[in-house]
Amino acid sequence: MENNEIYKVGLGLWKLPKDDCAEIVYNAIKMGYRHLDSACDYGNEIEVGQGIAKAISEGICTREDLRITSKLWNTYHAKEHVLPALEKSLADLGLTYLDSYLIHFPIAQPFVPFEERYPPEWIFNPDSTSPEMQTAPVPLHETWSAMEDLIEKGVVNKIGVCNYNSGLLNDLMSYSKIKPAQLQIESHPYLTQERLIRLATDYGIDVTTFSPLGALSYLELDMAEQTDSVLTQPVVTAAAQRLNKTPAQIVLRWGVQRGCTIIPKSSNLTRLKENISIFDFELSDEEMTGISNLNINKRFNDPGNFCEAAFNKFYPIYD
Ligand code: A2P
What CATH number should be reported for the domain holding residue 202? Predict the structure, then answer.
């Protein structure tokens, strides 16, 4: 692997069960992963930190070799909560700085003190008889300004955003003093997001795509069906056969070959290895176009759907 290629595939830490998380992170670093994509909301930052500490203590890598991202949760958008939220993630991860800190969603929710509930998740009053998601009137420019302060303090190397659309990105570019370095969005062959990726790239913003395998991430959440999988598409299986790779490797390779960083999650050592072994082959232009043409603008991770279904609140952000 070329030196910079190592960072093009990060380990997504969403849904890694706490019990296995430290061991998976440790094993992932041992097999070559150097980029970890964490978040307060994933509820496993202590265990992620344990895996990192074990790898560093065994001399597998240094802290400086790693690129570690975490994300500001919706309940900490008010300016006075941004630094404490970052410090809580740092303490849990056992780190003194982050490589990247991202606004997780362009959605502000009422503050929940750490000691009351951590991570606070989406529902404001989980113990009430009518639990629901609530929103708070905190404008995104206030949150961004507090994110900029983190750079000034030297506790974060880069700042960025997740789940922004082109309108929010244009707006952010108009007022930011420190420009966003990264945009993290859902993207896979059924949701190619070419215009948003082009816009971000024109602004000099690096794009990371989550759920790079599409539906697979959402099967266990009952948010997708097996028939939604892109891995059985003939254009994918034909490329897999030609290159003697798995369909998942073809889809992941498509993700990086189009210029994005990808963050597939796996709890399985064989699949973890498979997912970083995508730098010894190339898809042809026809294969790249064929896979891009699978786009049907199918979004699996959509607050416009899941907030109403799960949290009693209609709250679209992409429409
Ligand atoms: P598993 O952990 O059992 O490997 P995400 O989209 O959040 O990154 O999740 C990826 C999903 O795809 C997970 O459910 C993961 O399950 C599965 N997965 C990861 N890598 C592969 C692979 N190489 N082949 C098939 N499924 C995979």
Answer: 3.20.20.100
